[in-house]
């Protein structure tokens, strides 16, 4: 399959549509290896990944849901939201939390580190697509809360860029769409 075809086929698949079957460990390893080949300024390679496998995806749900339960003021707490966060991974094979780990090269702009980590994430999503594995890049729940990254062992200067829910699915892959053709987004000089 050509790389442009894989890019065009990549879709967000809701974790509720996953069937609970495990994704082969070789696919997860290929995703992580592809991430490691993302472009990076100054070879900082700022991406870090916390991987929950089939045996402990609910541990992630318990951690994530527990943070919401503990840190949300009673007046803002929603039981339905708590349950969604806690059980979001119930049909997942794996969950990968993606972190931008800020290095000690202060001459590298933070934005470039975020861009590199985002490119690493996209590489993972494309490998999953090539293997017909579903992914859902989420920034919901407590993802951006300082206690979330601290609970995973990361520091104040580090940034969580998302949670990738991974699983197999039985439905047809949804068709893609764009609001306009690429050439309407290009200014030629």
Summarize the structure.
With 189 residues, this protein is α+β, with helices and mostly antiparallel strands. Helices cover 37% and strands 14% of the residues.
Instruction: Write the CATH fold name.
Output: NADH Oxidase
Biggest β-sheet: strands ordered side by side in the sheet: 1-2-4-3
How would a textbook summarize the main sheet?
4 strands, antiparallel
Q: Residue ranges: pLDDT <50 for 5 or more in a row? A: none
Order of helices and strands: HHEHHEHEHE
The geometry reads as globular
The protein's oligomeric status is: single chain
Q: β content, as a range?
A: 5-15%
Instruction: Round the mean pLDDT to the nearest integer and report it.
Output: 95
Assigned CATH architecture: 3-Layer(aba) Sandwich
CATH-wise, what's the superfamily? NADH Oxidase
Query: Span from first to last CA?
Result: 33 Å
Cα-based radius of gyration, to the nearest Å: 18 Å
CATH class category label:
Alpha Beta
Number of strands: 4
Give the fraction of residues assigned to helices: 25-40%
> Helix count, per DSSP?
6
What structural class is derived from the secondary structure elements?
alpha+beta
Instruction: Give the number of domains.
Output: 1
What does this protein look like?
This protein is an alpha+beta fold. The protein has a single domain, classed as 3-Layer(aba) Sandwich (NADH Oxidase). It contains 6 helices and 4 strands; from the N terminus they run ααβααβαβαβ. It has helices at 3-9, 25-35, 57-71, 79-87, 110-130, 146-151; strands at residues 47-52, 94-100, 134-138, 159-167. A 4-stranded antiparallel β-sheet has the order 1-2-4-3. α2 (25-35) packs antiparallel against α5 and α3 packs antiparallel against α4 (79-87). The longest helix has 21 residues, at 110-130. The radius of gyration is 18 Å and the shape is globular. The two termini are 33 Å apart. The model has no long low-confidence stretch (mean pLDDT 95).
């Amino acid at each position: 399959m050509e790389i442009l075809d894989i890019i065009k086929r990549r879709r967000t698949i809701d974790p509720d549509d996953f069937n609970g079957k495990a994704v082969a460990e070789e696919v997860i390893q290929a995703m992580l290896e592809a991430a490691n080949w993302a472009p990076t300024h100054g070879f900082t390679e700022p991406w870090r990944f916390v991987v929950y496998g089939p045996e402990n995806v609910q541990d992630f749900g318990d951690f994530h849901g527990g943070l919401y339960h503990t840190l949300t003021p009673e007046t803002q707490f929603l039981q339905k939201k708590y349950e969604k966060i806690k059980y979001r991974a119930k049909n997942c094979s794996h969950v990968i939390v993606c972190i931008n780990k800020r290095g000690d090269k202060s001459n590298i702009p933070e934005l470039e580190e975020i861009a590199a980590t985002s490119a690493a994430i996209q590489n993972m999503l494309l490998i999953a697509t090539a293997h017909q594995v579903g992914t859902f890049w989420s920034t919901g729940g407590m993802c951006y809360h300082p206690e979330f990254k601290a609970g995973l062992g990361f520091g104040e200067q580090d940034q969580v860029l998302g949670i990738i829910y991974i699983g197999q699915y039985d439905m047809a892959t949804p068709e893609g769409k764009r609001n306009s053709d690429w050439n309407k987004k290009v200014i030629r000089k």
